[in-house]
Give the backbone structure.
Amino acid sequence: MLQVIGGGRMGEALVGGLLRAGGLRLDGIRVVEPDRARRTALEGIFPGVDVVGTPGAADDHVVAVKPADVPAVCRAVAVFGPARVLSIAAGVTIATLEAALAPGSQVVRAMPNTPALVGMGAAAIAPGSSADDDDLAWAESLLGAVGTVVRVKERLLDAVTGLSGSGPAYVFLMVEALIEAGVQVGLPRAVSQALSVQTLLGAATLLAQSDEGPEALRAAVTSPGGTTAAGVQVLERHGLQAALLEAVAAATERSRELGQEPPHSL
Ligand SMILES: NC(=O)c1ccc[n+]([C@@H]2O[C@H](COP(=O)([O-])OP(=O)(O)OC[C@H]3O[C@@H](n4cnc5c(N)ncnc54)[C@H](OP(=O)(O)O)[C@@H]3O)[C@@H](O)[C@H]2O)c1
């Protein structure tokens, strides 16, 4: 029995992904959600899945509540003895998780990102002190239902937060600017938005499916003296690469700082 604690956006995305991926039976999943209205909604979305108000005994748990609620949830799980737990709560350390769970619990900490909500997440996982290869493979199989998963040491999760955790916001900001730019050169806003979003999706898909890296793909569309070269030169002159380097470094540093504080909501 897999118990998903927290039936919010991430919990729902994970359960939906797991059911779509197959391999887990409806009666093999329980969702714990304290809010009655939300429970009713989840029962409608996942007919046949047990949706309850408080955690019960289970072999495996996913902790998908806000960071500030994590210690209380772990203590509620600890009542049933050692457990295998995957936490997706941003910034809550393995030490905090292990301190609140029963001794000997196998903990895996993950840093996912919001595209998991559409099955296109990028997550990194790190093992706790009692977690072995099987536990990491288990966590990979869960998060693999909503995107890609890589393994890192816990100390690298701040960098993961700075890159892929916060990354969707960098991309959204870039698309906002692209849409505005399209409007400024004369396109109707709706046209600019449709072209900008599809350009991003198309470029990302091309990159993901191609054997070539981003440099080669960029070179292929940049003829000397052409339109793309003119645009890219401006981006380079304004320091796009440097800005991204600094952005990821700043977000990584902020993640480190927040990790020193008690569990918080990001
Ligand atoms: N969303 C993201 O993109 C993202 C990315 C990376 C990491 N994360 C992490 O994923 C976690 C969940 O995020 P989310 O966006 O899914 O948040 P969310 O939509 O607020 O979901 C959290 C859910 O947990 C429920 N909950 C709170 N206390 C509980 C308890 N004691 N027992 C059982 N359920 C409880 C909440 O119910 P109530 O509403 O009744 O309080 C809510 O439904 C967070 O820790 C976040 O840091 C999220």
Summary: The pocket of NAP is lined by residues 5-11, 32-35, 38, 64-67, 69, 72-73, 88-90, 112-114, 165, 266 (CB under 6 Å). Residues 226 and 232 are 10 Å apart (CA to CA). The two ends are 30 Å apart (CA to CA).
